[in-house]
Fold this sequence. Notes:
Chain A has five helices and 25 strands.
Amino acid sequence: FSTFPGSPKWRKNHISYRIVNYTLDLPRESVDSAIERALKVWEEVTPLTFSRISEGEADIMISFAVEEHGDFIPFDGPGMVLAHAYAPGPGTNGDAHFDDDERWTDDVTGTNLFLVAAHELGHSLGLFHSANAEALMYPVYKSSTDLARFHLSQDDVDGIQSLYGPPTESPDVLVVPTKSNSLDPETLPMCSSALSFDAVSTLRGEVLFFKDRHFWRKSLRTPEPGFYLISSFWPSLPSNMDAAYEVTNRDTVFILKGNQIWAIRGHEELAGYPKSIHTLGLPETVQKIDAAISLKDQKKTYFFVEDKFWRFDEKKQSMDPEFPRKIAENFPGIGTKVDAVFEAFGFLYFFSGSSQLEFDPNAGKVTHILKSNSWFNC
Amino acid sequence: YPLHGSEEDAGMEVLQKYLENYYGLEKDVKQFTKKKDSSPVVKKIQEMQKFLGLKMTGKLDSNTMELMHKPRCGVPDVGG
């Protein structure tokens, strides 16, 4: 690794950034999320923290531009130079500029904004280019990077910690593993027949399968699911969650763990959460939800707890009377250990361990028994 | 593969620009193509090849040409 000549760095640990304008290639919240995740890459291995401002002069001003854009170092149209950034300091220093003649994407079909942003923000923090081809700070863009397994190389960590030291709360130097073990040791590979899930939920037409600190994101458009760190999308969501469900007409996914509930809308974490699950009207005796699902047509949400379930009226925003009821009575064939549930093609899919039961609500019976990872095209 | 004729000239132009932008080669070196075998230019080429992890041939070989055409960051690799 190397730093800029004279090793300029920020003389403070809390740094502001501002996204001055947006590329039209991506939804705004995708740009916001890519920049946030790119900053988090460096935040995790240093004492640095970042906060976003929406107006005025920030330490790091992030913008998209084409060709000549005011700093006498014009961009060059599609390809070749993708972006550039300046070493820490006042004014233009610390800023990052992205060539809007590129096709920015949040996968690798075009130029991945997260990857380039993480590199450029390395410059904004004081790192120069590295001759280590494995490093994020290597100057040439690697379109073959496996985003699901992305992590800093040891060279990047050594570089940034030579300027800012390790994260303050860790007792000793934090070393990001250089082997791709970003999977938790206990998280099984996608096609393992023993794979089970903590929670499953739809989200804007896709299906998210949550497991430990990660989730698989399955879109009907792609045979293979993407694999991501939960915190890379929603930093304050817990890992190892208990349940998740989408209330479609509110465009909101609720996450449950213990006696708390969080709410997200796309990439956004809704304010005012987590809240207690008892605000929904569940009795104090319930301290944990096994699984949950909200049925759009009925506007009812079902909470499964051990051998019983409650039903919440989304219109009235209150629990329906005469609940709880026995799961076995209303969902014959579904046992008492429900890990997760979601709806697709008019069927309810109940997950229990490595098995999945397809339940036809109209016929009131289980119609198929599948492996939990049957959606992964294994 | 060895470059011939105008293809070589085009390659040399890209090389000169690359060395100027990222490896501190003085801008507007006249008749760069004629000077490509002179030791200062060979040294520059080798410096670039070493940084990027290429074989240090000191010449504009196909691997070097291929890497120079890949998308990259606009910050220089050496110097200020």
